Structures are given as C-alpha cells and as structure tokens.
C-alpha cells in the first residue's frame, strides 16, 4: 500500500481470521476510490488467502478502524469487528 501512488493513508487491523483495511485516496483519485479498494482487496486476498479480507475507501471505515486499533481492549475487538463488517456491507 505504501508504494501505491493513489493511496494517501491506510489503517489495517488483523484479528483472528479477519483483515480489515480502511484507506484514504488522494484527491485526484477520489472518483475511482471504489475501484482502488476493490483492486487492493483482490491483491490482499491473494497474499492472505486464509483471512477474511475487507477493504473500504469510505472515510467512516478508516476512522472506525483507526479508533478500534488505538482504543479497544482484546475482549471487545471481536464484537467491534463484526460491527465494522456490518457497516461496510450496509454501504454496498
């Protein structure tokens, strides 16, 4: 992700069998953010076939993923991850 010129920032969360990634795209790439997220998700699924991979370019997902990384306790993470997954599925 660091080498992708279209991505401005990202937050990735690995937990059990889940990988959740929130990305922020650069200004000129914002019209293609869904395509960028889809391409990134495909490449991450190839790298981590044993994980359930979810990538979103929605700023709410990036914010919630970052907040989850910084503030959650281990016992709350599983519930919060399922809330994030539901939020992403709701938006698509």
Helix/strand-derived category reads: alpha+beta
The side-by-side strand order for the widest beta sheet comes to: 1-2-3
Mean pLDDT: 87
Question: SSE string, helix = H, strand = E?
Answer: EEHEHH
Instruction: Please tell me what the overall shape is.
Output: globular
How many domains in all? Answer: 1
What gyration radius follows from the Cα positions, in whole Å?
13 Å
Helix-residue proportion: 40-55%
> Beta-strand percentage?
15-25%
Termini separation = 23 Å
Report the strand count. 3
Low-confidence stretches: none
Number of helices: 3
Describe the structure.
The chain is of the alpha+beta class and 92 residues long. The chain has one domain. The chain contains three helices and three strands, in the order ββαβαα. It has helices spanning 33-47, 59-71, 74-91, and strands at 7-15, 18-25, 52-56. It has a three-stranded mixed beta sheet, sandwiched between helices. Helix 1 (33-47) links the parallel strand 2 (18-25) and strand 3 (52-56). The longest helix has 18 residues, at 74-91. It is globular. The two termini are 23 Å apart. The mean pLDDT is 87.
Task: Pick out its properties.
single chain; 92 residues; alpha+beta; 3-stranded mixed beta sheet; 3 strands; 50% helix; globular
Give a brief outline of the structure.
This protein is of the alpha+beta class and 92 residues long. It contains three helices and three strands, in the order ββαβαα.
């Amino acid at each position: 992700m660091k080498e992708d010129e279209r991505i401005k920032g990202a937050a990735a969360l690995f937990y059990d069998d889940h990988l959740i990634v929130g990305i922020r795209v650069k200004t000129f790439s914002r019209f293609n953010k869904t395509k960028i997220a889809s391409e990134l998700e495909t490449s991450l699924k190839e790298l981590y076939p044993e994980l359930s991979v979810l990538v979103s370019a929605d700023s709410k997902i990036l914010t919630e993923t970052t907040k989850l990384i910084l503030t959650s306790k281990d016992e709350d993470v599983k519930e919060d991850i399922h809330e994030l997954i539901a939020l992403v599925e709701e938006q698509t």
